[in-house]
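queue> holo job accepted (3-methyl-2-oxobutanoic acid)
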Amino acid sequence: MMSKITVEIIRGMKARGERIAALTAYDYPMAKLLDEAGIPMILVGDSLGMVVLGYTDTTHVTMAEMEHHVRAAARAEPGALLGADMPFNSDKTVEDALANAKRLAAAGAEFVKLEGGREILPQIRAIISAAIPVCGHLGMLPQSVLVEGGYHVKGKTESERHRLIEDANLLSGAGVFAIVLELVTPPVAKEISETISIPTIGIGSGDDCDGQILVTPDLIGTFPWFRPRFVRPLADCAVDIKRAVADWKKDVEKERKFAR
Ligand code: KIV
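queue> job finished
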């Protein structure tokens, strides 16, 4: 049996030169499958709003929905480190952030992830002070899609590059154990990864992060209606599901005809 993965183990992977492969799960079976496949870090991402709940973006996901899915994933009792996203507006004030991080931890999250940099440092410090580990998230912030008018690559200008590096240092200084870098230009993601001592976990940010994370349905093709350009799917489950269902339907219809 694999030993339980802790935040310290994930943090230490960078120092040991081990790359971190992280994926999302939103329920019991997927958390169990990812764990059995040896994935060390599983995130109940608020991407669940889009790939499971059918919302147009992640800003509609509620705390109650996150708790429900974290509980389901936690029932898998993964050896992997299991974390959860703080949903939109759940970390607006320090008080809210702390109370909501505690709710997710009570549901089974072993860490929480917050989107943003310097502007949420008080929230991050308060959560870490309550002994709940925090993963940062910089670059393109999906919860800002409405104010930004889309999903834009970050780090293209010198001021964006400078701000990202500063924010990464501030988050690291505040005690986050890792930082997700989403849609950051690969050279800037590389520079951040070389600058800070904690792991960077990239998504659409090139190969030079310390690890990679994907939204699992993008990797296995269970959400075929939208797939980010940077993802190379390794399975096409939607096709398999539709084929199996159509074959079974044909069998059922045949059996009915013979029974009459
Ligand atoms: O919500 C999510 O799944 C995420 C990943 C993109 C890292 O935050």
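queue> Residues 24, 43, 45-47, 85, 180, 182, 203, 213, 215 surround 3-methyl-2-oxobutanoic acid (CB under 6 Å).
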